[in-house]
Specification:
about 575 residues, alpha/beta, Glucose Oxidase, domain 1, 8-stranded mixed sheet, 4-stranded parallel sheet, 21 helices, globular
């Protein structure tokens, strides 16, 4: 092996396995299946998020094997490794949910760690749940080696057109007395029929769509059922595509450009996607050295309408969008209307416009995607709010169904659990603005999702009569008059820390403001009396995260990259 040829595609693997001095490395690899001929092939790391702790990822082991086979078929050597995943759906409403956003950083770190150590020349990353998708993309961006992301796919609907959010809202209906225990158990038993990510335009499907629009997935990857031949074929093709990217030395930094991020934001808005997309896209852009901020969502949102009638605010599920063609016809529609940058490079090696050139329109009789001439909402549902409660910004998902303005009296809670108990026992009533604070990136720590309290509000029939604001965040399944990501967070002394029961709060999604009816003098007096709480964790991963994490307004990231040259 001392005189093996140097293949320019093997920029990272050659120093690990070439030459007499690397005999020990080769000996280790022979034990896991490498043959003589494999040492001269480009190595493609397959980052799998397989786990049987959640249906979102329970099938990904087989998908990883398909991707590895695709890399092998194209002349490379696939090597599968795992990273972690957690389940928001299981952890929501518990202390464990504080690890959710933290896991995004752990996943990113772990992919960088394994690929950086082992010398993979290219990568395929396969994700199937909320945090592991942006975590995968951030890891690929840090490494900046030819890479493709694959989405694990969406789940099928449960009995009676149900899904995980149906279960959360059924819990709220039960607490109100509208659903007995037998009915609740029936929904619990049938809402999740098998593998795949949560079935509406929640965070998983939102991020998968955004990543495809970004150009980092093969066309169609974001809109396939988890259990399908199409998804197997997608994974096999992704493994092959990495070898083609290696031939042309096309890296994530060539694809994840400013214009590509604008495309991703545009598609998220058109689909009525999750508020988490704001947090994750800003974080992903930061990692690859692209400037993207809250104001960009407002600017793009003024020209992009909401077209998709998808859950949680709409009627349909992702599997039903899959059945009529997925997001490719939508992207073609947006491109033809001048709302997408068609010259952006993608992992096919072609531009977005080239990928969409032969895409057929949706069937004439479909009712999931509205025409541009009659949108569901003429501007974005993602509203970036500023005001004396959020000087650095906040993020709301306002579809218009819940109205565009809410004014009410504050009912203040220092944790999600406290708020949940008072919603369930009827303390929270019509006209309240539920304030949940000390749940931000540092204060939580971990910026928990508030799916349980928002679902309880909906389940109790208060969706249009109660608002909820927080320095935490929301699940893609949350809907109603909700505002999250309030920055600065309460733990850092943000104005949310100064709110008292009975204060009047006004949220206006037309002028994009969130204000508390207090004078500057009153705020100053309250600030002088405020004392910063002690950290909730002083050891372990949550404590480390709290010490280094940035504000939600900058993506809640734990490292600030100087640009895409990291780990080259």
């Amino acid at each position: 092996m001392s005189d093996s040829p140097t293949d320019p595609r093997r920029r990272h693997s050659a120093p690990v396995v070439d030459g007499v001095g690397k005999a020990a490395s080769r000996a280790m690899l022979r034990a896991v299946g490498f043959k003589d001929e494999d040492f001269t092939k480009p190595q493609v790391g397959i980052a799998s998020t397989w786990s049987n702790l959640t249906p979102c990822n329970s099938h990904i082991d087989e998908l990883a094997r398909q991707a590895s086979a695709g890399a092998d078929a194209a002349g490379g050597k696939g090597v599968i490794f795992n990273t972690i995943t957690i389940s928001d759906g299981i952890a929501n409403g518990t202390e464990g949910m504080k690890y959710s956003l933290v896991s995004r950083e752990v996943i990113c770190d772990s992919i960088e760690t394994v690929a950086g150590c082992e010398g993979f020349d290219g990568l395929v990353a396969i994700g199937g749940c909320d945090k592991n998708m942006p975590g995968c993309l951030m890891g690929l961006a840090r490494l900046n080696r030819p890479s493709v992301f694959v989405y694990g796919g969406t789940i099928l609907p449960g009995k009676g057109h149900t899904d995980i959010v149906s279960v959360f809202e059924a819990m709220g209906a039960h607490s109100r007395g509208d659903l007995d225990l037998i009915e609740l158990k029936q929904i619990e038993e049938t809402a999740i029929p098998g593998p795949g990510a949560c079935g509406g335009m929640y965070t998983a499907n939102t991020m998968a769509s955004a990543i495809e629009a970004l150009g980092m997935s093969l066309p169609g990857s974001s809109a396939q059922n988890a259990v399908s031949q199409a998804k197997h074929d997608d994974c096999h093709a992704a493994g092959q595509a990495v070898l083609a990217l290696l031939e042309r030395d096309i890296k994530p930094s060539d694809i994840m450009t400013r214009e590509a991020f604008e495309n991703a934001v545009t598609v998220v808005i058109a689909l009525g996607g999750s508020t988490n997309a704001v947090l994750h896209l800003i974080a992903m852009a930061n990692t690859v050295g692209v400037t993207l901020d809250l104001d960009d969502f407002t600017t793009i949102g003024k020209r992009v309408p909401v077209l998709a009638d998808l859950r949680p605010s709409g009627h349909y599920m992702m599997s039903e969008l899959v059945a009529i063609g997925g997001i490719q016809p939508l992207m073609k529609l947006l491109l033809d209307a001048g709302l997408l940058h068609g010259d952006c490079l993608t992992v096919t090696g072609k531009t977005l416009a080239e990928n969409l050139a032969e895409v057929a329109p949706y069937p004439d009789d479909q009712t999931i995607i509205a025409p541009l001439s009659a949108p569901l909402k003429t501007e974005s549902h993602l509203r970036i709010l500023f005001g004396n409660l959020a000087p650095e910004g906040a993020v709301a998902k306002i579809t218009g169904k819940e109205g565009t303005r809410f004014s009410g009296t504050a009912r203040v809670f220092g944790s999600e659990e406290e708020a949940q108990a008072r919603i369930n026992d009827g303390t929270v009533v019509a006209g309240d603005v539920v304030v949940i604070r000390y749940e931000g990136p540092k204060g939580g720590p971990g910026m928990r999702e508030m799916l349980t309290p928002t679902s309880a509000i909906m389940g109790r029939g208060l969706g249009s009569e109660v608002a909820l604001i927080t320095d935490g965040r929301f699940s893609g399944g949350s809907h109603g008059f909700v505002v999250g990501h309030i920055s600065p967070e309460a733990f850092d002394g943000g104005p949310l820390a100064l709110v008292e029961d009975g204060d009047m709060i006004t949220i206006d999604a037309q002028v994009n403001t969130i204000e508390i009816d207090l004078s500057d003098e009153q705020m100053t007096r309250r600030r002088a009396a405020w004392q910063k709480p002690a950290p909730r964790y002083t050891r372990g991963v949550l404590a480390k995260y709290a010490k280094v994490v940035s504000s939600a307004s900058t993506g809640a990231v734990t490292d600030i990259a100087d640009g895409p040259e990291l780990n080259k």
